[in-house]
Design a protein that fits this description.
The complex is a heterodimer of chains A (326) and B (273).
Chain A lengths: L6 E11 L4 E12 L4 E5 L6 H8 L7 E10 L2 E2 L5 H7 L4 E4 L3 H4 L6 H13 L3 H14 L5 H4 L9 H13 L5 E5 L7 H18 L2 E6 L2 H7 L2 E6 L2 E7 H6 L4 H8 L43 H5 L5 E2 L5 E2 L6
Parallel strand pairs in A: 3-8, 3-9, 6-7, 7-8
Antiparallel strand pairs in A: 1-2, 1-4, 4-5, 9-10, 10-12, 11-12
Helix pairs in contact in A: 4-5, 4-7, 5-7, 7-8
Chain B lengths: L4 H18 L1 H4 L32 H37 L1 H16 L2 H12 L3 H9 L4 H15 L2 H8 L4 H37 L11 H8 L8 H28 L1 H7 L1
Classes of the chains: A alpha/beta (326), B mainly alpha (273).
Chain lengths: 326, 273
């Protein structure tokens, strides 16, 4: 796709400042998402994927802050916008759904009202119109009997229903980008599939781009066209989602893919152990020099321990940050 | 479900006091100010004079009934002022934090350090006696507890998912405070407000007793007590009935506050069901 990407992140660094010292919780983050595209960000807990999302919507709070780099939304730098300008983007152009739908809904307000408020806030509708639109929004996320459900409080809804309501709120104003931070982690597996399906269909219908954040490589590859894998605050590999399973290039991604259980394989039947990646993720304050994966990497050589690898373009398409990539 | 006696009794007493205040012109036997008759001075309670008469022959029952208007007006209005100030300061301080939080905290500590009655006395001394100055004096001096509670709630609510979600959805600060935080902290605020009304009624009585409240001859429970001081041995009914009125109203408000706390506190609610 040509032209200005919907959102473009360039060399973003996020600082964690606990008062006495300042460390980079994430650095060198670059990616772009085009209009209507689906992009996934995968990594273990603490690798920096959620704070990257928060940075995109300008919501980093102390002790976290943007330490460098540029985020552009339709070519405009988000950091340079006024507080009111950022607010105008949030909810209206960029929306977000959260991991735990119970805590993300206000317990003292009926869901219909919470959806309607979006229309009042961003589209200048009257409450009467907004309430009507809220019923339609609930219907669009396939909540049965929406005209009755709008009066329900969040605690009267099941987990799946709450997440549907949350999606209705997020998509209310027809945003251009939907950030989904572990949207189904708190749900049952069956409900999870329904929600993902719903989210994908709605976004495809409306041309909404999705930035999906998850630790579940399979889920992300299933939803997204392109996937970026993060490790210890850096993006180590960015590929088309089919390629990442077929021919992972970074040793960390290779390890991740190898550790996935496969239906019918010997490992899944319990005969042999699943592959694992030796070692643990380094603490944020003691990232190793050079490539951050080097202490756990079987292919590590001297250069990996001293020089930080740059991102290289792969011939097959995609980016990788490794000295020894195939 | 267990019968909440405190809520029912407290609510009934408070409702009774409000009804008496509202219906004073119909309940009173005589005009509380004008119907003085020295021929009836210092009559003990009887069928004619339910609560007796004072040294000017005014019907104590009628004066107590009309006094409810002053006490309740002061109690309700001044506590409303306190609640608004306390919530506005506490909520914004807890939500925004930073230097504003420090300022509000310092102010709250100052208010807590100075006994509020003394502070109210000082304000009354500047403004002069009267109902309006009473409302101002008591309305400006008792917001610190409300403020503390609003601030603490705002601090804990601020990190709730739905408050963050509201920020992500493009809500402004004011809208977040009003639609997300305020409704979620209303329970404790209402409880504190009810208890605060009780203490405002007492403060009104104290200030009127000290001669700084409602001007004579208009009746207020506190000023009636003050007037009755000299005759406490010869005509005890002069102090007993206004005192009883204060006692029952404050008791009612405190029971109501306790009862509301039981109902509004989710923990005690789950224990009861």
């Amino acid at each position: 796709m040509t032209g200005v990407p919907l959102i473009e992140v360039e060399d973003l660094r996020i600082d964690l400042d606990d008062g006495s010292r300042c460390v980079a919780a994430a650095e060198g983050i670059s990616f772009r998402i085009d209009r209507g595209e689906t992009f996934g960000l995968v990594g273990e807990s603490g690798c920096g994927k959620s704070i990257t999302a928060l940075a995109l919507i300008g919501l980093l709070r102390q002790p976290l802050s943007i330490g460098g780099g540029v985020i552009r939304f339709e070519g405009r730098e988000i950091q340079r916008l006024s507080a009111a300008g950022q607010r105008e983007l949030r909810g209206n152009r960029i929306a977000m759904i959260f991991q735990e739908p119970m805590t993300a809904l206000n317990p003292v307000s009926p869901v219909g009202r919470q959806i309607a408020e979006m229309f009042v806030l961003h589209k200048g509708k009257s409450w009467r119109e907004a309430n009507q639109l809220a019923v339609e929004a609930l219907a669009s996320v396939r909540v049965p009997a929406p005209e009755r459900r709008v009066n329900d409080y969040p605690h009267q809804l099941s987990g799946g229903m709450r997440q549907r309501a949350m999606i209705a709120i997020a998509l209310a104003c027809g945003p251009d980008l939907l950030i989904a931070d572990e949207p189904t982690t708190a749900l049952d597996v069956t409900v999870q599939a329904e929600i993902i399906e719903l989210m994908r269909n709605l976004c495809a219908e409306r041309g909404t781009a999705i930035l999906m954040i998850s630790h579940d490589l399979g889920l992300v590859a299933n939803v997204c066209r392109r996937v970026a894998v993060m490790y210890a605050g850096r993006i180590v590999e960015e590929r088309g989602s089919a390629d990442i399973f077929r021919a992972p290039s970074h040793p960390y991604t290779q390890g991740l893919v190898a550790s996935l259980p496969r239906l019918g394989s010997r490992a899944a039947l319990g005969r042999i152990r699943l592959k694992e990646i030796a070692g643990v993720v380094p603490a944020i304050t003691s990232f190793p020099d050079g490539c951050r994966f080097n202490p756990r990497c079987a292919q590590a050589t001297d250069i990996c321990r001293t020089v930080t690898p740059e991102t290289d373009l792969l011939e097959a398409g995609g980016l990788v940050r490794c000295h020894h990539h195939a | 479900m267990k019968l909440r006696a405190n809520l029912i009794i407290g609510g009934a007493l408070f409702a009774l006091a409000i009804l008496v205040g509202l219906l004073a012109p119909w309940l009173a036997h005589t005009d509380p100010v004008l119907d003085a008759n020295l021929l009836n001075a210092e009559e003990p309670p009887s069928w004619t004079w339910w609560f007796g008469t004072d040294d000017q022959g005014r019907d104590i029952y009628s004066r107590v009934v009309y006094g409810a208007r002053v006490s309740l007006t002061v109690g309700i209005v001044s506590q409303l002022i306190n609640s608004v100030i306390g919530v506005a300061l506490g909520l914004s301080a807890g939500y925004w934090g930073g230097w504003w939080d420090d300022v509000v905290n310092a102010l709250t500590n100052l208010m807590l350090a100075i006994p509020s009655l003394i502070f109210a006395l000082a304000i009354m001394a500047v403004l002069g006696p009267g109902l309006t100055s009473l409302l101002i004096a008591l309305g400006l001096t008792n917001w610190s507890f409300t403020c503390r509670i609003a601030r603490a709630s705002a601090l804990s609510l601020r990190s709730q998912g739905y408050v963050q979600a509201a920020t992500v959805l493009g809500y402004g600060d004011l809208r977040i405070m009003i639609t997300q935080l305020l409704p979620n902290m209303l329970g404790p605020i209402v409880v504190i407000g009810t208890l605060g009304m009780g203490s405002a009624v007492l403060s009104e009585a104290a200030l009127s007793f000290l001669g700084l409240g409602v001007r004579p001859p208009f009746p207020s429970w506190g000023s009636m007590l003050s007037d009755a001081r000299d005759q406490i041995t010869t005509a005890p009914w002069l102090s007993v009935f206004p005192g009883l009125a204060i006692f029952l109203t404050v008791l009612g408000l405190n029971l109501l506050g306790d009862g509301l706390r039981d109902v509004l506190d989710p923990q005690s609610r789950s224990r009861r069901t």
